[in-house]
Amino acid sequence: MTREPTGDRTLRADARRNRDRVLRTAQQVFAAEGLGISLDEIARRAGVGPGTVHRHFPTKEALYLAVSIDQIKRLVTQAEALAKTNDPEALFTLLSLMMASGAENATVKSALAATEFDLRIAAPDVAADLTRHVAGLLDRAHTVGAVRADLSVGEVMALVAGAFAAIRHAGAETSPDRSAHISQLILDGLRPR
């Protein structure tokens, strides 16, 4: 006979689900409406009490950081799936996903930059994991000749960061078509001549 978990396990699972719900809601609200939404309003939209949000995220900056880290973790999961394929275009797929995620979360990333948060410092393991996956896919792309031979992982990561700035400069954060076009222009520059 299997028993349902009780006590702390249930609370931890519930707390994890509530935290995930708050993160998803916050990401959507910040992307659609900006950063002016209060933590209490995010709680209401997530269907949890204000205390739940404040317990997990005592400040808006903590929530911004958590949203950004969560996005990177999701990109790592997608990178892991792409690494298991034999697709020579997997690097371009991942970079497109990274640029779209960055465009969608440009407001949050700007807020973090303004408070001098650096994700590479705040979440070094997650950031390094994503870079490691980009490096692996870049190596595969080099092997099959899908990218320029002189391209390094550091340059790829710099170009992704530059794409965020280009999308923001063009005011294309809220236009998936325009941000995808800008991203594609950058990605085309990675291909062999």
UniProtKB/TrEMBL annotation:
Domain called HTH tetR-type: residue spans: 16-75
Pfam family, one: TetR_C_43
Gene Ontology MF terms in the entry: DNA-binding transcription factor activity; transcription cis-regulatory region binding
DNA-binding region in chain numbering: 38-57
Name of protein: Helix-turn-helix transcriptional regulator
Record SUPFAM superfamilies: Homeodomain-like, Tetracyclin repressor-like, C-terminal domain
Keywords: DNA-binding, Transcription, Transcription regulation
Keyword Nucleotide-binding listed: no
